[in-house]
Amino acid sequence: MEPFRIHILGCGSALPTAKHNPTSQIVELREKLFMIDCGEGTQMQLRRSHVGFNRIGAVFISHLHGDHCFGLIGMVSTFGMLGRTAPLHIYATPEFGPMLQSQLDMFCNGLDYDVLFHPIDTTRQAVIYDDRSLTVETIPLEHRVPCCGFLFREKPLLPHIRRDMIDFYRIPLSQINNIKAGADYTLADGTMVPNSRLTTPPDAPRSYAFCSDTRYMPRLHRLLRGVNVLYHESTYDTSHADRAQLYHHSTAAQAATVARDAEVGTLLLGHYSARYECEEVLLNEARAIFPNTFLTEENRVFSVE
């Protein structure tokens, strides 16, 4: 299978610490790179992760809090200094458009590539990106400002060719694409070889859901049913549930409850409050509800399987 990976560039929350960077991730699928959020220092984390700057085709900003977008204009400027020519697509709430343009006018005159802004509606689930490999949908969330998550869905794959059958029937290479597309094959004597004999079923499409800053939403799991990997913010443990409620954040237990109810494969925790020198308390709390839970940390890579 083609790689489907999540590169963690930052997993801290708003207050800077020496341990964690603000939120940013890279989604890698079929040699394409997409960025989710771009907190301060993201481009330094890109350097440390050895992810190719110029392979990033789009940036998805979940909401307009600084720890999720302060690094964007610096990265856009760096792309220009590196000689980028491919367009960069940026998806964010409508009010970000004028601010982005002002920053481009002030700091990024003379770029040799286009920065294309796409306003998104955080109040509804909708496909905002679509190519041959995948779709990206918004996931409405509830935070102090308009906010959404993003659901990356791999498109259905083609079946696998059985090389032994291709060789046995001496089928020419020119027919392989037709067979992958579902065609049967007719031999010279008129015998029809069914497609099911020439192929094996394709791998199941994979999916990754990123749930940014949000308070606990009891019905959120309905939008996430069966995704392979779910990232859900877990700013606090249950002893600080009152703060989570006040600031529209989630506890690790609440994140795990969403994962359990959605029947996801794997849960990733992040957006840790700076109060935690060790996040094991969050991990243990979540695993008590959803065992297949992991802590994110800078420069760690998770596979979507």
Structure description:
The protein is an alpha/beta fold and 305 residues long. 25% of the residues lie in helices and 26% in strands. The chain contains ten helices and 18 strands. The protein has helices spanning 42-49, 66-69, 72-81, 96-107, 163-169, 176-180, 195-198, 241-246, 252-262, 280-287; strands spanning 4-10, 24-29, 32-36, 56-60, 88-92, 115-119, 127-130, 134-140, 148-154, 160-161, 185-186, 192-193, 199-200, 207-211, 229-233, 266-270, 293-295, 301-303. The strands form four sheets. The protein has a seven-stranded mixed beta sheet with strand order 6-5-4-3-2-1-18. It has a seven-stranded mixed beta sheet with strand order 7-8-9-14-15-16-17, with helices on one face. A two-stranded antiparallel sheet has the order 10-13. A hairpin with a 7-residue loop joins β8 (134-140) and β9 (148-154). α9 packs parallel to α10. The chain is globular and about 75 Å long. The chain starts with a strand and ends with a strand.
